[in-house]
Amino acid sequence: MNRMRWLLPGMGVVALLASCSPRATSPESSVSGPGAVVTIAGEADFAERVLSSRALVLVDFYADWCGPCRRLAPILEEVAREQQPAGMVVAKVNVDEHRGLARQYGVRGIPHLALVRDGQVVGKRVGYTGKAELTTWIEAQR
Predict the structure, then answer these.
(1) What is the CATH number of the domain that holds 41?
(2) 116: burial class by Cβ within 10 Å (0-12, 13-18, 19+)?
(3) Total domain count for the chain?
(4) Identified catalytic residue from 69, 91, 102, 114
(5) Catalytic status, residue 20
(6) From CA 5, how far away is CA 39, in angstroms rounded?
């Protein structure tokens, strides 16, 4: 099914035409095991899991229709498993479902990665990033 998808006002491109299939969404955040990536279910969930976390949190602002986001997903899962002993959490925020959070954090392009420590953004990256570069960036922010 073709749908109009948005990025954010202020960019040269306001919408992208993307082909995506409808999917079921859960009202609760999902976690799929140790070192898993947490899927944020809303602003309250974001506040609890990201802003209130004592751990370093890598937040991935993504969209299901975004090719680079889909390529980055398995890398983030690997990083989540590898960084779990160090206490880092990886959280995903779907920008189509949580536009307010995307606006609040200045997301203008995706994938948009933000490192959050003690409720404050300590680093940002936009675009696809390979695993080695991503790991180096995370370690530099510790």
Answers:
(1) 3.40.30.10
(2) buried
(3) 1
(4) 69
(5) no
(6) 20
Tokens of residue 131, six digits = 């695993």
Identify whether 17 is part of a domain. Answer: no
Tens of pLDDT, residues 42-68: 999 999 999 999 889 999 999 999 999
Torsion of CA 68, 34, 44, 41, to 10 degrees: 50
Q: Which of 38, 66, 80, 116 is catalytic?
A: 66
pTM: 0.76
Neighbours of 102 (CB within 10 A): 22
For tokens 């890398």, name the residue: 75
The first and second tokens of residue 71, run together, are: 């390529």
How far, in Å, CA of 134 to CA of 29, rounded?
24
Distance, CA of 125 to CA of 111 (rounded, Å): 8
- HSE value, Cβ hemisphere, 13 Å, CA-based, for 15: 7
